Give the backbone structure.
Amino acid sequence: MEEQRATPRIAVLLPCYNEEVTIGKVVRDFKTALPDASVYVYDNNSTDRTAEIATDAGAIVKQEPRQGKGNVIRAMFEDIDADVYIMADGDDTYPADAAPSMVAKILEGYDMVIGDRLSSTYFQENKRPFHNFGNRLVRGSINVLFGSHVTDIMTGYRAFSFAFVKTYPVLSRGFEVETEMTIHSLNNNLRLYEMPIQYRDRPEGSVSKLDTVGDGIKVLSTIFRMIREYKPLPFFGGLGIIIAVIGFALTLSVTFEFWNTGMVARFPTLIGAVMLVIAGLLFVVSGIILDVIAKNNRKTFIIESNKITLLWRNLTK
C-alpha cells in the first residue's frame, strides 16, 4: 500500500438542526480529540443559536437550506475535500475520543468505519423501545438479504475515505441516509470495519428530531427500494416464481376437472391462471435482465472509484 502523506487532512462533519444545547461541547470535544482536523457544522435551517454557538466553539459553519439530513450530507460530501472524514451528530450522543481510532482505520485502507452502538451501551442508554426494535429489524433483514454480519446498520457515527465520499450517490433526503450508506457499501463489496463505541442518550434539554413512525417507514421504504435496485434477481425472480406457482396450481385444478368430466367449466379461472403463469415468467426474465444491469453498474462503480482514488493521490503528492 502506498504511504500516506505525513499529515493527512481530516474533516469532522456535523449536520445540525436546533442543537444549541449540545453543539458547543461536541465541537470542543472533536477539536480536542483531533486537534489537526477541521470541524464543519452544517446548519440545516435551525431556529435557535446553533450556528452562533458552533462558530464561537471554533467550527467552520455553513448553511444548507434543503431540509433533511440526507440533503446536508450530500452538500458536505460535495463541498469538502479531505483524506479522512468523520461524521457524527451534533447531539452529544457519540464519543469524540473514538475518532482517532476511526481515522487510523481509514488510513489503513478501509473505505468506511462504522461506529457500532449496538454492541455496547445503546440498548441501555436509548429510552425509546420502538427504536431498539427498529434497529434489530433493519439489521436482521439487511444481513439476511446481503449475506453480511453488520451489527449497527443505522448509526450516525462513521468515518469515510476520500474515494467513498466522492463516489457515494446520496439519494435519500432524511435520516434513512445511514441505512442507504450501509446497503451501498455491502452491494459494492467495500472495505468496512465496525468499531464498538460507547453510545449515550441525549442530555436533558436536548430534543430528538426523529419521528419514530415516519422515519421508520422511510427507512423500510429505502430498504425495499435498494433491494429492488441492487438485488433485482432475487426480488423480481422470487416474486415471479410465487405468481407463476399460483397460476400453475389454478391451471392444474382446471385440468383435473377437464380430465374427469371432459369439460372446461371454469374458463375465467383458466384464462386468469395462464395469465398469472405468463406474468410470473415475465417477472423472472425481467429480474435476469436487471441483474445483468446491476452487475454492470457495480463494474462501473469500481472503475470510477479507482479513477477518483488515483486523481486524489496525484493531487496530494
